[in-house]
């Protein structure tokens, strides 16, 4: 979660953002929702979505008022499918309004589990509810939820150069989990002085690496 993420859009000037992103920020402010994705994280999401293949599937947990979806929709391929789940009915209504008319986007009023029926994903953003491993929940399995070469994004880490990373003096287990996951090539992106985001790319299995030869 991004503390006061919503305010950052107004501090930066709404005109600097894609229209739907700005609309999500306005809707968030109007409904006193202050946890919009940090704009710098949003830009990273847009960069990742811009690199997606045709027909890509994108999943997000925790829609909020739709800022993250709007960032990804601003660059995703025209035939992408973007599905986001949100448990708060008011935010679902708001996000649907913000993204109305974008046929690529589906906002479900549902918990995280409902998202898995729409995967596996080329890009999966864990930004609400269980799945990220924060708050003691079981982290999702990237191998189960990603397509070959797919990426998983977990945001809202406090920047640190310490290894192993600590948070509040304790080992930062969720961050360690994602940075050292055996199925992922992971990187930590320092997107702003106060915000780090982990992006992991699914590693091919040994079976994926087998090349079939047609030589008799
Ligand atoms: C940090 S906010 C999401 C911000 C949003 N992704 C954005 O781009 O602005 C977290 C959201 O997750 C939602 N949430 C919490 N638990 C959830 C669950 N189990 N399933 C779905 N959404 C959940 C909250 O209602 C909240 O709107």
Task: Summarize the structure in words.
By secondary structure, the chain is of the alpha/beta class. The protein has one domain: Vaccinia Virus protein VP39 (Rossmann fold). Helices cover 30% and strands 25% of the residues. The strands form 2 sheets. The protein has a 7-stranded mixed sheet with strand order 3-2-1-4-5-9-8, with helices on both faces. Strands 6-7 form a two-stranded antiparallel sheet. A hairpin with a 2-residue loop joins strand 6 (166-167) and strand 7. Helix 1 (5-12) packs across helix 2 (19-30), helix 2 (19-30) runs antiparallel to helix 4 (67-73) and helix 3 (39-50) packs parallel to helix 4 (67-73). The radius of gyration is 17 Å and the shape is globular. The N and C termini lie far apart (56 Å). The relative contact order is 0.13. The model has no long low-confidence stretch (mean pLDDT 95). S-adenosylmethionine binds at residues 1, 35-37, 61-64, 67-68, 85-88, 91, 111-112, 127-129.
